[in-house]
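Why this split exists: single-chain examples teach little about how molecules sit against one another. For that reason, every record in the complexes split bundles all components of an assembly together and asks for one structure covering all of them. Below is a record exactly as it appears in the raw files.
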Amino acid sequence: MQPKPIALKILDVVSIISIAAATYLALFFAPTEAVMGQVQRVFYFHIGTAWVAMLGFILAAVAGIAYLVTKNMLWDRFEVAAVEVSAMFFFITIALGSIWARPAWNTWWTWDPRLTTAAVTELIYIAYFMLRQGIEDPEKRARFGAVYSLLGGLSAPITFMVIRLFRTIHPVVIGSQSAAAQGGFSMTTNMRTTFFFALFAFTVLFIDLIWHRIRLGGLEEKVEQLKLEASI
Amino acid sequence: MKKTSPSLLKATLAIVQKDLAAEFRSFELISAMLVFSLLVIIIFNFALELDIKTRQSVTAGVLWTTFAFAGTLGLNRSMAVEKDRGCMDGLLLAPVDRSAIYFGKAISNLAFMLIVEAVILPVYSMLYNVNLFRLDLLGVILLGSIGYSAVGTLLSTMSAQTRTREILLPILLFPVAIPVLLAAVKASNGLLAGAEFSEILTPLNILIVYDVIFIAVAFMVFDFVVEE
Amino acid sequence: MFLETIPDTSGYMIAGFGVCFAVMGIYILSMYLRGANLKRDAEMLESLQVENKKTKSKTDTAKKK
């Protein structure tokens, strides 16, 4: 692995600062929500991680198409990075959603469409890794991975459509006048600032982690290549 | 004299014909799917409290779960048979557009699923005193089965080439097929409960959208997934 | 809707942020560990390669004689 480029070092620092700032905003700057109390503060990170996860899954699908068209392994490396980092963030999304649900709806989990499909989406990406693990040939692995990340990337937005169209107890925070679902709330200015800054901070962190994972992927390929040569 | 390769339609139909003919000789696939489906329904009877009231709300779910599991069985076996008999290699060598192989396999897989469903529906109707012989319900079942087969055929082609083979298919298929199953269950439920058409229209639309998107994608991508 | 008191859900809040940082921390740690292991493997394999080349050139020259 080549030495860390300066841009990445800077990005590391910026990521840490951004996340720290977002944490401060979420914990202290944003007002306490009247109905749910302090737990509502996890909402900013819940949405932040959800946003980057969804972004990542879509990027993975695009990378899949790019690989199939160009056959360039760099796209495969990017795709794996996107899926892995996004799966990690989405796990946090689901966990935070569950932690928020407990005091808000008095249950750790409900099988309402949005939560169920969030779990399903996460399972798609776990399946993605199981698929890759079952293939030894790197070229075939890249091909199959690309196809599956494309299928997954199509399934995720359809899932999102299903959310909006079916009745749900999940709060619709953005774009609703009245909090028709339980636990909804409208945002004050401070909340809005925190919200958008959290989105920004997680986007920065997301790019940083993907970059690191891509570098790791390059090292993985190098070792695999060396092992192949050694076995000849 | 140069022999022109058969048209896509001809090739597709030829493959469907081959699969159906082979199956009707032995019935090993359909019989296995049928027996399995019956067993699943019986297990559901023990697993769930199916008194008259709950039966109404659960019928759609039980049916689609059964179809999904039986479908997986059929998809796996159908692909395994190709590999075992070496048919796949033969098909790949033939001067035929690869998409014909995809459409052919998908249609025959769909056919097997529909045949099994055609038997299960009357059986379930009898066992639980529910009228399932409605044209609109059959339409929903058809749409759902199409989507399931379309994705399932593509994924079974992939899983057949991995180390874990058949075990991997459900893991790959179920999460991606959830929109189909969810929409199909919602639509079926709505129909059986006599809901307003506007309520059923939404899941119906999702079914159609899903079918169109995934058939198109599977057809475009199949070439990358079939063995060299 | 006017509430007398805001419920104290700070325990859940701490759990939430805790989970978030724990998972991110574990992931970053796993990337670091994987990188370290791979570097070690690469070095070992590369030195093996060098040794093989040396012994190969020795046997080649031995064969020529």
